[in-house]
Amino acid sequence: AKERGEGGHQRYRPGMEARGAERNRKAAALRAAMQQEQLVVFFQPVVTLPGGRIIGAEALVRWQHPTEGLIGPGAFIDVAEQTGLIVELGTWVLRSATREAATWPDELKVSVNVSARQLREAGFPAVVAAALRDSGLPAHRLTVEITESVAVGGGATAENLQGLRDLGVRLSLDDFGTGASTLSLLVTCPVNQIKLDRSFVPDGDASDAIADAVVQMARAFEVEAVAEGVETAEQAALLTRLGYERAQGFHFARPMSAALFQEALATELAA
Ligand code: C2E
Ligand code: CA
Ligand code: CA
Ligand code: CA
């Protein structure tokens, strides 16, 4: 977060210029990476509980760096947000993910993460509509994942969320349970799905109270519940006992290239 002095001006602090320069350098590198088509979309399976059958996937962006190797979004999403590059990056992810998902079996869904900046911009539903039209993916097979801070964002956010619902796109509340107004958000921002944040996944030692409350809340509001960050068989069993019917996590599969995801689907169909 930026430090602000009186009147909203940034107070000078040593190192601030250096950090600004570092950010500009990173932004320029990311812009070049996009032009050179070094970004790739990985897909992490979403599976049934119990059973582990693939019912869809979440699209997660990666930077295939020529010398550094595969770089995760943690290293560049913030800079993309701060510089506005996220709008172009997000549109690219959306178009790639929908194009890929259109080649999967009909019942499989794809989830795409959308940032606050994208959702604030007037005309975002038209960008989504164009991606659906150009890919041929039916709207109900696309889920847009938003976090609480995205959902309460300003600008055209509220109109855009309604615009997405009107298109027939599904909405999911990501990192559920970590926000301050998570509960009231279910009323003010109707969604189709909530994703239990991985910090609340029970593992036998920690309390399962939040995971339990969230799945019951999901039932009461008639929304799907997905548990994310499931790393062990023990966690999967505990979640199943609580009533979770969908999960995502390293225990089932890591995010993988589009080609490997297709292979995973083929292997499952052959089994
Ligand atoms: P997220 O949306 O909460 O995505 C889930 C993250 O958890 C992914 O990290 C995934 O690799 C990781 N994960 C999945 N299963 C497990 C597990 O069992 N254990 C652990 N420890 N982690 C697991 P990733 O791919 O590094 O993405 C980090 C974040 O970057 C995402 O968090 C999302 O907020 C953001 N992000 C990724 N792709 C995009 C994108 O295309 N657009 C935007 N706006 N944000 C993106
Ligand atoms: Ca997500
Ligand atoms: Ca999440
Ligand atoms: Ca344990």
From TrEMBL:
<feature type="domain" description="EAL">
    <location>
        <begin position="23"/>
        <end position="269"/>
    </location>
</feature>
<protein>
    <submittedName>
        <fullName>Uncharacterized protein</fullName>
    </submittedName>
</protein>
